[in-house]
Amino acid sequence: FASLKQASQSGAPLYLQLRRSIEDAVNRGLIGPGDALPSERDIASMADISRVTVRKAVQDLVKGGVLVQRHGSGTFVAPRMERVEQSLSRLTSFTEDMARRGKVVRSTWLDRGLYAPSPEEMMVLGLAASEMVARVARLRIANDTPLAIERASLSASALPDPSVVSSSLYAALEETGNRPVRAVQRISAVNLNEADARLLDAPTGSASLRIERISYLASGKVIEFTRSVYRGDAYDFVAELRLGV
Ligand code: GLP
């Protein structure tokens, strides 16, 4: 911080210079996850700049997820997310994936009910307009960290009472012999919108992965159409590739 006043000759606004120097310190590991930042007043006096300028830089970094503020105790470097390495070659459920890692799974229900299908659901699930669709939408949480939002649609004939899904959708489908055996998954990059960011406890606009899964029964019938948003800082998707054309 001490060099800031001198550096200010460079022309960039002071708050931006301070923001960069804090980011730099975090990236170079000079301050690590969980470390406390000096108080606003101390930074202001060290860098010889106003507290308003310090506050602006700090707020920017809080919004960007680099720092976190805890009321009453100060400002800290944000904890680094432990990343999940997820294989793309097996058709598993979220509950199974997390259980294998010894994590405790919990979900917050966003929706669970029967509806008239949207045109897209009719098309993907092969439903007639007179049929119903079962929607199961959840915020998926592992060890108290929200990792993904999953919105699944299924034909009501496969899941006539969505309230039977207590924790695992695939476990509920397995009970009625409707567990999918094959799926096609599409992964695309998106920036989190405000509502999803709030649910995932991540900054609005931060990187995330949209995952669409269409899964099939052995008969070839589509059983599940799920759209999910996964936190970009929490997942690595890994696939094994073999020589071929
Ligand atoms: C994964 C898939 C979803 C699937 C879910 C089932 O997360 N992306 O498409 O619906 O697993 O998980 P569970 O059985 O834990 O509800």
Explain how this protein is built.
This protein folds into two domains: 4-77, Arc Repressor Mutant, subunit A; 84-238, 3-Layer(aba) Sandwich (Chorismate lyase), CATH 3.40.1410.10. Helix content is 27%, strand content 32%. It contains eight helices and ten strands. It is elongated. The protein starts with a helix and ends in a 7-residue tail after the last strand. Bound molecules: 2-amino-2-deoxy-6-O-phosphono-alpha-D-glucopyranose. 2-amino-2-deoxy-6-O-phosphono-alpha-D-glucopyranose is lined by residues 93-95, 150, 152, 168-171, 211, 213, 224, 226, 228.
Structure characteristics:
2 domains, Arc Repressor Mutant, subunit A, binds 2-amino-2-deoxy-6-O-phosphono-alpha-D-glucopyranose, six-stranded antiparallel sheet, Chorismate lyase, 245 residues, single chain
List the helices and strands and how they pair.
Elements: H1 4-7, H2 14-27, H3 40-47, H4 51-63, E1 67-70, E2 74-77, E3 84-87, H5 94-100, E4 105-115, H6 119-125, E5 133-142, E6 145-155, H7 169-175, E7 182-191, H8 194-200, E8 207-216, E9 222-231, E10 235-238
Parallel strand pairs: 3-10
Antiparallel strand pairs: 1-2, 4-5, 5-6, 6-9, 7-8, 8-9
Helix pairs in contact: 2-4, 3-4
The protein binds 2-amino-2-deoxy-6-O-phosphono-alpha-D-glucopyranose.
Number of strands: 10
CATH class of the largest domain: Alpha Beta
The main sheet orders its strands as 4-5-6-9-8-7
* Largest sheet report: 6 strands, antiparallel
What is the typical, i.e. mean, pLDDT?
92
Q: So, CATH architecture of the largest domain?
A: 3-Layer(aba) Sandwich
Poorly predicted regions are none
CATH topology of the largest domain: Chorismate lyase
Task: Name the bound molecules.
Answer: 2-amino-2-deoxy-6-O-phosphono-alpha-D-glucopyranose
Terminal CA distance reads 55 Å
What structural category do the secondary elements indicate?
alpha+beta
